[in-house]
């Protein structure tokens, strides 16, 4: 099957921090106008600041674009809360034994965006947020900034557009992401979850990069009853192009769907199963309001990267946030079978699910990204990046995942490094807050900056080797 997968270009980054290789991470922030380039040393389990990059507003979600023809530059694209609403492009450049990030250009859009994606063949950028989504062509050559504006999509009736909220507040109930599938024998498909509408909108991609609406998929009927306000927040697609995963913000579920190419008869998305983002004992508890699901907000998800020994992801990682300081966020790992469905039916089976309780609520966006330790590890061991803007110690955290067959004792998922240390401050203001602001990262664009591209080409955290 032709998945139009990103080109795999090996790039091993040398390190000034230690003699061993390091992984670079590019992170945005809710509490700072800057981007932050970090270096993680697996040998020393340290996470250090390499570069602070002046940017244009908080809430930078990152999507990675193509590698330059020379092979020493990768391009990234970010959202922000800047006004008027804008998207920005950046070049991540290799200089001798280090990486540096520089601004390329920006483009104004009509409504604040929360998500960007640059799917293969990397000719167009897709952004979504609130009442609209945008399609922009990318310039060709060795500096692919923004080109022609191709299309704007709307998630409110046309007669409501002029009065629609186009600020960041609309991200709470409008469109919130966009992902692509490349099923065999079909045009590429795009999926946009609309949080407030509890619907996933489905499109085909035309040759000119524009999107054509073909279907709408409402909230599924689960065993605990219909969810009228499910709140689909983010989606991901299995590399086989036949399975879609969706995290719901309001009901705290990970839903699995099968994908059928549009045929005019069968729905594109068919609901298969769900797993709880929070431990079952928390879901079964009740309180005086709407129950425990309202104490948490489902957030993001990511499939384990494909490797030569494990081409089909063994695991999917999902996060949820506490809706107040009394509830800690959670990271859950679910085992998948070879087809991308949940492995087994027992949610409490320790060989099928692992849960990690975060040290805080997780903040506005409990984002994550993943990096394989080695390509030949049969257990699927990973480094996991987690972002958090919650007090008292917001920042970037690195977790270690030992894989499903780990027998070394202790937990299989645990924190091993964090940045910044308590007391670190960014000497800039964000969104009218105090002049000196404690850095709190946002999952918007947090991730390894892979010069060796991963199947999940858009993430909130980006790794750079």
Mean pLDDT: 82
What is the number of strand segments? 33
Total domain modules? 1
Q: Please give the largest β-sheet.
A: 5 strands, mixed
Low-pLDDT regions: 1-19, 428-447, 450-465
CATH topology: Methylamine Dehydrogenase, Chain H
CATH architecture: 7 Propeller
Straight-line N-to-C gap? 27 Å
Class derived from helix and strand content: mainly beta
Oligomeric description of these chains: single chain
Q: Which range does the strand content fall in?
A: 35-45%
The CATH class turns out to be Mainly Beta
Figure out the total of helices: 1
In the CATH hierarchy, what is the superfamily? YVTN repeat-like/Quinoprotein amine dehydrogenase
Organism: Mycena sanguinolenta
Keywords: Isomerase
Protein name: Muconate cycloisomerase 1
Pfam families: Lactonase
Structural summary, described in words:
The chain is mostly beta strands and 465 residues long. It contains 1 helix and 33 strands. The protein has a single domain (23-463), classed as 7 Propeller (Methylamine Dehydrogenase, Chain H), CATH 2.130.10. The strands form 9 sheets. Strands 1, 2, 3, 32 and 33 form a 5-stranded mixed sheet that branches. Strands 4-5-6-7 form a 4-stranded antiparallel sheet, with no helix packed on it. The relative contact order is 0.16.
């Amino acid at each position: 099957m032709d998945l139009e997968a990103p080109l795999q270009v090996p790039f091993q980054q040398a390190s000034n921090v230690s003699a061993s290789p390091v992984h670079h991470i590019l992170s945005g922030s809710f509490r700072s106008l800057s981007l932050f380039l970090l270096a993680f040393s697996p040998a020393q389990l340290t996470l250090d600041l390499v570069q602070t990059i002046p940017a244009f507003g908080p809430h930078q979600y990152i999507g990675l674009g193509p590698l330059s023809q020379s092979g020493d530059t990768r391009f990234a694209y970010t959202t922000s809360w800047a006004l008027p609403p804008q998207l920005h492009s950046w070049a991540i450049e290799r200089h001798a034994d280090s990486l540096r990030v520089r601004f390329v250009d920006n483009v104004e859009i009509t409504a604040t965006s929360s998500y960007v994606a640059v799917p293969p063949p990397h000719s167009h950028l897709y952004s979504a947020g609130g009442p609209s989504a945008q399609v922009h062509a990318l310039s060709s050559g060795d500096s692919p900034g923004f080109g022609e504006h191709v299309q704007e999509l709307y998630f409110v009736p046309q007669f409501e557009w002029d009065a629609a909220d186009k600020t960041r507040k609309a991200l709470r109930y409008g469109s919130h992401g966009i992902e692509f599938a490349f099923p065999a024998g079909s045009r590429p498909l795009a999926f946009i979850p609309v949080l407030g509408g509890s619907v996933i909108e489905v499109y085909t991609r035309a040759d000119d990069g524009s999107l054509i609406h073909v279907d709408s998929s409402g909230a599924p009927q689960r065993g605990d009853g219909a969810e009228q306000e499910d709140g689909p927040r983010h989606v991901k697609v299995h590399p086989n192009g036949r399975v879609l995963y969706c995290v719901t913000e309001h009901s705290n579920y990970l839903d699995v769907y099968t994908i059928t190419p549009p045929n005019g008869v069968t729905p594109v998305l068919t609901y298969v199963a769900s797993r709880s983002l929070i431990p079952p004992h928390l879901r079964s508890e009740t309180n005086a309001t709407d129950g425990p699901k309202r104490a948490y907000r489902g957030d993001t998800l990511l499939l384990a990267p494909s490797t030569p020994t494990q081409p089909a992801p063994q695991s999917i990682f999902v996060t949820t946030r506490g809706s107040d300081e009394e509830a800690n966020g959670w990271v859950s790992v679910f085992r998948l079978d070879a087809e991308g469905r949940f492995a087994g039916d027992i949610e409490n089976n320790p060989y099928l699910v692992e849960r990690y309780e975060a040290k805080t609520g997780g903040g506005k966006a409990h984002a994550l990204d993943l990096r394989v330790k080695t390509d030949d590890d049969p257990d699927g061991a990973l480094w996991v990046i987690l972002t958090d803007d919650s007090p008292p110690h917001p920042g970037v955290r690195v977790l270690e995942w030992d894989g499903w067959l780990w027998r070394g004792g202790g937990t299989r998922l645990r924190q091993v490094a964090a940045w910044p240390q308590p007391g670190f401050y960014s000497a800039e203001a964000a969104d009218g807050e105090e002049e000196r602001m404690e850095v709190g990262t946002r999952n918007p664009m947090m991730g390894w900056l892979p010069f060796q591209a991963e199947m999940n080409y858009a993430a909130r955290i980006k790794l750079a080797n």
